[in-house]
Each structure stands twice: as structure tokens, then as C-alpha cells.
Amino acid sequence: MTIELETDPLNRIAAALERISPPPQPAPDVDAADAFVWHVSPDRLVPVRHVARVDMDLLVGVDRSRDTLLSNTMQFARGLPANNALLWGARGMGKSSLVKAVHAAVVDQGLPLKIVELQREDLTSVTRLLALLRASEARFVLFCDDLSFGHDDQHYKSLKAVLDGGIEGRPENVIFYATSNRRHLMPRDMIENERSSAINPSEAVEEKVSLSDRFGLWLGFHACDQDGYLAMIDGYCTAFGIEIAPDILRAEAIEWQATRGGRSGRVAWQFVTDLAGRHGIAIPG
Questions:
Q1: pLDDT at position 5
Q2: Which among 79, 87, 213, 224 could disulfide-bond with 95, CB atoms 3.0 to 4.6 Å apart, if both were Cys?
């Protein structure tokens, strides 16, 4: 009777610990899809059956960035040396669209490349993610969209695990692509504020600013002019079979961008979406 009283609490404690710390998740099935999203609590790679992407031929005005990123990705997919890439610049100019389009182009050429999307908020879990990917024979583009850091943001320390890899180094089968509206991943006013208030201004923000230096490729995206904006719309209309008189198309497109207060690839796509809907033409989502 005494033994049962002593053992029963131990069993209850053991059961409680198992509930708090569940067994590790099984190895992900990377053959389930070409694209995944990383989730935490619990850690898992969720396959994406249909990736929301734009065909690379429809990305106008980014020829140099397109060719550079495609070449770098092809090298990596073939097991050759390649660089991490930071795509930075104006909003809505196709940074994330280019990453997804390049991945699709590489897969279409028969190279078994996977893409994994990582949210900035989950950067603290990246070491666990890299451990999963390192154990796989597949090759992965680890993609973080809209990456930036604020004044007291400590997530940037986790990013170093991707770019430098710590004592183990970055996994040979993983490359990191990120997009950001900021070249140095943090607002300029924060850089200046920290420099002006620090005891040693030259070192005040070096750790954060140097993050961008760890990317081998910097690809800049700049706001388009009116001709570029209209060329994007013409390309979409041709691809989707939207027929409209050129003068009417131009007038409507200019009016649309005026109501939005600016021009970008995103604004062009939103205009074409509206135009296609009004003409009863379905376009890819």
C-alpha cells in the first residue's frame, strides 16, 4: 500500500511532463510539395499546394534583378556556390513576386528546389527549422518577406543563425532570401538616433546595420515612372486577353494611379484586377 502511494504521484508527474513537453514531431515529408510555410507551437512544415505567384514574364522593369536572382538560384539548385540575397526598395515593385517566380522557373526546369516561407515573428525558432532542413537531402530557399527591425527588436540576433550559421555554419542545402523596404533593415531615423545618443556612436548600430552586409546579393527595386507603369498594365492585358482601346486604357490607368497617390507594380495589378472584373474576364488569383 505504501509503495502504491509513493509511485502514483511519480506517475502523475511523469504524465504531466509528457503533456507539457510532447514528443518531437516526425521528420517532415519534403516530397509532399515544392513550397512550405513554417509554423511553430508545434513546429511543423505545412505544404502549400498552390502558391500565389505571378509569371516571371509579367514582371516588367526588373530585368537585371530577375537575371541575377535567377542565375544565383540556378547555381544553388545545382549544388554550386550561391549567395544569400536581400531584395530591398520601393513597396509594391515585385520583390516577393520575383522570389516566388524565380523558384517556379527553377522547378519548371526540372531542378528539385523547395521554398520555405518563414515569418519575421518566428525568427526565434529558426535554429530548430535549420536543424530540420539540414537533415534533409533536398535543397531549400528559406524566404522571409517584409523583413525589418525596430529600435528594441531582438529578432535580428536570430537572423544571424541563418546568415552565419553559428558554430555549425549555415546548412549547405539552405539559402536565405529576404525582402525589405529598407536597405539596412531598420529605419534611417533609428540609425541616426542611436548614433547621436550612444557613448560610442561609431559602434552604436554596427551590429544591426551589418546584417545587410551579410547578404552576398543586394538587389534594389525603385519606384517606376509612368511609362513603366503603363507597360506593366499592357503586359497584363495582353497575357489575360483583355481587349480595350489603347487611349481608353491609358486614361483609366492614369486615373486609377491618381486615386491611389502613386505608381507601382502592385497598383498596376490592382487596376488590371478591377479592369478584368468589369470586362468579365477571369485572371489567376
A1: 47
A2: 87
CA 132 to chain centre: 19
What span, in angstroms and rounded, lies between the C-alpha atoms of 136 and 247? 54
In angstroms, the CA 230 to CA 226 distance is: 6
User: Which of 175, 161, 171 shows the shortest CA–CA distance to 116?
Assistant: 175
Q: What is the band of 9 on the pLDDT scale with cuts at 50, 70, 90?
A: confident
How does strand 35-39 pair with strand 44-47?
antiparallel
- The residue-averaged pLDDT of 33-47 equals 93
Rg, C-alpha atoms of the chain = 24
Instruction: For residue 120, give the DSSP letter.
Output: G
**Predicted local distance difference test score (pLDDT) of residue 204:** 47
For the full predicted model, state whether its pTM sits above 0.85: no
Contact 100, 144 (CB under 8 A): no
Alpha carbon 199 to its chain's center: 36
* Residues 140 and 173: beta-carbon distance below 8 Å: yes
